[in-house]
UniProtKB/TrEMBL annotation:
This is Mos1 transposase HTH domain-containing protein. It holds the Pfam family HTH_48. Coiled coil: none annotated. Residues 4-52 form the Mos1 transposase HTH domain. InterPro entries: Mos1_HTH (IPR041426), Transposase-MT_Hybrid (IPR052709).
Length: 68
């Protein structure tokens, strides 16, 4: 489960359980080790979900598509 979308689902779940962003970072890093998103990415997605975002999909961008 190292796909970024899967990680975003977990971040959203941790928020729903009432965990802080720091706890979410710690749990994600512990579970996924090297495959975890960066702390900054986790904080960004945590903030998005806290502000009411529902989708776990990232916004489309121009350029070459990601392989994840």
């Amino acid at each position: 489960m190292t796909e970024k979308r899967d990680q975003r689902i977990c971040i959203k779940f941790y928020l729903e359980l009432g965990h802080s962003s720091v706890q979410t970072i710690c749990m994600t890093n512990t579970a996924l080790d090297e495959d975890s998103m960066s702390d900054a990415q986790i904080k960004t997605w945590y903030r998005h979900f806290k502000n009411g975002w529902e989708s776990t999909e990232s916004d489309p961008r121009s350029g070459k598509p990601s392989t994840n």
